[in-house]
Every structure is written in structure tokens, then in C-alpha cells.
Amino acid sequence: MILQDLAERLAAQLHGDPALSVERVATLSGASSGDISFISHKRYRNELGQTAASAVLLREDDLPHLAEGVAALVVDDPYLAYARVAGWLYPPVEESGGIHPSAVVEEGAEIAADVSIGPHSVIETGAQIGAGCRIGPGCVVGRHVVLGEGGRLEANVTLCHHVRIGRRVLIHPGAVIGADGFGFANDAGRWVKIPQVGSVVIGDDVEIGANTTIDRGAIDDTRIADGVIIDNLVQVAHNVQVGEHSALAGCVGIAGSARIGAHCALGGGVGVVGHLEICDNVIVTGMTMVNHPIREAGVYSSGTPMEENAKWHRNAVRFKQLDEMAKRLRRLEKQSKDESTE
Question: What's this model's pTM, rounded to 2 decimal places?
């Protein structure tokens, strides 16, 4: 793509040759001729001054630090601009339509004419596959599943019976949508399975990472709203609800019936206790344990940061002593107050 076209698409201010073309994206330090890079943090200004890229996406205050002879596209958000440019330079590979001879499509499944179904995939009866869908090898689309138009299932994705998926949803390899929730009743020490009769409903423009699992509801449906992004190895339990455009990073675990608001971000390894609610516009930093409701927008954290092992051990011991230390402090404060009034 030539820089003039990129500048027009991004509404960017162009410094350099409008006819210069770029073919690839690259890091500032690894770029060469024909590459376009970006800078989104001042700590990379040293690399900005040495880059061999043909062009760089940057903010105006970074412009004086750019290496001589390198073109610039000045934008408000270089990282967002980079995401868009990368999408234009690396469009998804279009697969040819059609059903592979080894795929199994049961009678009663409804498949749009331009759908691609890969080797050894199974489409069960009553499934509805929308226009433009791409189903990779080894996938299972269960009974009466609905997969909206433009959906893409990578290899070995399982959509269990009656799951409903919106439009333009991308699901990465190994994900399982609609397995039974973890529902059991205790009968004098023996577990009795509770049938999970709900389903999973996923909105439009959702992306779900590799080996993530989203369980079907016990009675009502588990729901993932439009625009949600979910990383790899995330566990979403039965009856969870996740609001629009929220983000769940790797290894997040959300217990049953929790409700996550819209525009929330849960960092890697966050755990959310069941049956509680997180309001809209909440950020929870990595490895935090959410064990009570969050009713006000903001940033929340728990846990202790890494430190040298011997120091950590000393602090861990002192943590166990906090209750007794607090009691002693109150006694001393009371004693001091009594003595001052004598």
C-alpha cells in the first residue's frame, strides 16, 4: 500500500513521499526497507531514532525523534492505527467453499451455499450454518446449533447442541462451547448430576481463544454479549453473563452465575467467585481474586507482587501476625488516651 492511501484511510498527517509503498509491518528495531512500524510509548524513542523502516506511525510529539529519511504518519493513537494497517496488509486467507469429502453432514442440517467445511468435521442434524462461514478440520457442530454468517471455526472446535453463535465470530482451535456446567447435588456424600438444560448464546463480533471453555447454563443460558474478546484457556462457567466489549485475558476463571458488566477488562489469571456482579467499566489486574461484588467503575487489584524469596517469607510471616498486631495497637492507643486524660 502507498502512504497516501494509508494517510487518507487513517486521517493521518503525512510527512514524506506520498508515493512510497510499504508491504509489511515490523518492530522499530527489526524493520527494514518496505516495512511500516509504530511507536506507542516514549521508552522506545531510542529505537525510533535508529529504525530502518520506510515509515512509522507515531504521535506528533514523537516526530522530532524519528530517524532521518523515514516517513511518518502522525495519528492520535499509533497502536490502533497499527492494528488497522496490519489488517489491511495481512487480510484473512480466503478458503475455497465446499465440503471436504471426509466431512459428515447429517440429514436436516442447513448449510449456506458458500460455506467451507474442512476434513473430518461433523455437522449434526438441525444445525444452521450461515453464509460465508468457514469451518476448519475436526470440528463438531452439534444438533440445532446456529452459527451466524461470516463465522469462523479453526481446527477442532466443538459447539455442543443448541448453542447459538452470532455473526462474524472467530473461535480458535480446541475451544469447547456448550459443554455441561459443573452442576451436582450432594446426597449423603455422593454426587448426583444435575441436568444442564440451558445453552450458550454468543453475540456478534466475538473472538474466543484456543482451548477456552464456555459451559451451558443449568436452566437459563450462559450469555456472551457483542464484541467480547476472550483469550486462551479461559473458563466461563454455567449461567455467567459477560457484557458488551469486555475482555478476558488468558487463564481467567469465572464461576457460575457471575455477571460481568460491559467494557470490563480482566487480566491474566483473574478468578471471579460465583453469583457476584461486576459493574461496567471495571479493570481487574492480573492474578486478582474477586470475592465480593464490584459496584463502582475503576481499577481493582489483589495479591502480592513478586519479591526476593527471603523477603517474601518474612512478609508472609508478618501477614499472619497482622491481627494480633492490630489488637496490640488498639490496646496501646487506649492506654495512651487514658494516660493523657489523667
Answer: 0.91
